[in-house]
Batch of 2 targets.
Target 1
Amino acid sequence: MIALITGATAGIGKATAELFAKNGYNIIITGRRKERLEEFSSHLKANYKIDVLTLNFDVRKLSEVEAAVNSIPTDWKKINVLVNNAGLAVGLGPIQDGIIDDWERMIDTNIKGLLYITRTLAPLMIQNGFGHIVNIGSIAGKEVYANGNVYCATKHAVDALNKAMRIDMLPHGIKVTGIHPGMVETEFSIVRYKGDEERAKNVYKGLQPLTAEDIADTIYWAASRPAHVNISDVIITPTVQANATNTIRK
Ligand code: NDP
Ligand code: 8X3
């Protein structure tokens, strides 16, 4: 069994790769940070009896995505599970003050990157006659919150694409699942606040957020249902978070 996880150098993607490896999958890990990919690959190979392929590219660049997918050796092409995870929020502010470069980074990564990956890998799955695409959305793709405008829009797009892919993949027997987490403590907020670790820590102050491992568990659970069962959509939050805007803090 083979799982390809985009954005496996940190957070949810990394925890997901580890869990699939633990369960005997051979893993294809991707990300821009080459050193992290290499270190993680060595860790996975040393700890689990599996094989690892690293693909170092930026999901925003179609030519890099195509070159990376074309470089996958034949015996790695029987991909059972694709986790479309690579993504980010950059900045948080009202639309009238929006920083265009931040918007473009989010749109290019969360929507266009996910599309590039899917466009290159879905035909392979169709050719193989099996596969499961897991799209990582967000609670921000189900609701909107103050100052979240463009990030929320990108995750609403992921939600729409998840539903659309399920229709398009239906005749091919390929499963499609959307996983929509609330607050998960990863590098996400550090990226959103452009390296301001103190501000990022405050996001989770006084509450117990989800961990990357919680989401990995959910992804693995969805991917390990019997052949006739497709998990369409999962919203998962910390117990102290009711929705995108209501949380309880100590
Ligand atoms: P992290 O910042 O910890 O990890 C993000 C991963 O995405 C990294 O591996 C990063 O790798 C990769 N990535 C980002 N941009 C690119 C790019 N242009 N090309 C290739 N890879 C890229 O965040 P999370 O693990 O929290 O986020 C994972 C997903 O979960 C995202 O889609 C996010 O929107 C979603 N999510 C997160 C939530 C949270 O609260 N943390 C809640 C809901 C959804 P590298 O930098 O090496 O390229
Ligand atoms: C990440 C969760 O609430 O910051 O998608 O948008 S949130």
Target 2
Amino acid sequence: MTQPGFRFSGVGSVLPDKVVTNDDLAKTMDTSDEWIRERTGIGERRLGGTTSGLAADAARLAMERANVGPDDIDQLLLATTTPDYMLPGTAPAVAEILGLDCGAIDIQAACSGWVYGLVMANGFLLQGEKRILVVGAETLERMTDYTDRGTGILFGNGAGAAVVEPGPGEILGWDLGADGKYVKILWAEHGENMSMDGKEVFRQAVTAIQRSANAALDRAGLTTDDIDFVIPHQANIRIVEAAWKRLGFTMEQTGMRLEETGNTSAASIPLTLDKVLDEGRISDGDTVMLIGFGAGMTWATTIMRWSGDDRAAA
Ligand code: UT7
């Protein structure tokens, strides 16, 4: 099969208005701004909105930047672990808000979902489709207990989106994985808040990042020295630092938005990508790695020769 290439024609992200600082949380639980910053790297998180509403707002920005309208989108892939309803999926509602007339499905792979979506989008492009909208959107507030200091300090709401199409860039290597042995280290029963064994998630996350990054590098025939820029899932800065020590990446080549957003699960990588593009830190031809990891456990890595979103239509 011929490789059609992979270009990010537009990226966008949104955060809801309500800011909850660490000091705000310290009023309702036994914690402090100093502890949360030092142990996680998080300064604040945003609450409010709905998953479909945030998803549609982020998608609109991505579509504007890509200079495309609803008729141009061939598929909508929505990564979310906090759907608006048990039934149906949230993607059809997002498609309705945006006026899309195309396939629309949810991807539930927790924090790895958006990167799973990119690999799936590449598959659609290989089958001849022209533009895929890949959205990560979360309202983690729905299943977070903000009086529990073990989980309540970490999670927030937000959404990010990208329009991808054939182009001069390319997915050079990828890795998708899951290990169901670890379902019960981070999970939520129907109608309940999430439960988490934070230490075990931390340990498994560091292992998963390392394993997935190396598997994707092998598939691409590259080494860590070939990677110009990396965006990891934004869960805890210490997870990233521990994994980077093993892999040999530096924080200077790393995109982070955790301080401002907290952990936004499937939304975290596109939210960070949008910020990094604003800062002009990725250019055409760069070799860029995205690494998702999270509940399941699931993990997902892509390595791309970057092409796209020069913010022209912004
Ligand atoms: O997408 C994946 C989502 N999940 C994650 O990323 C979670 C990964 N895990 C983590 O980020 C960390 O394990 C936490 C941030 C959840 C906890 O950090 P930790 O460094 O593993 O803390 P700990 O559980 O080992 O607790 C250390 C101490 C304990 O006190 P003692 O026993 O030493 O007196 C805790 O009771 O810190 C205490 N503690 C807190 N203190 C203030 C635990 N949570 C807090 C808190 N504020 N929020």
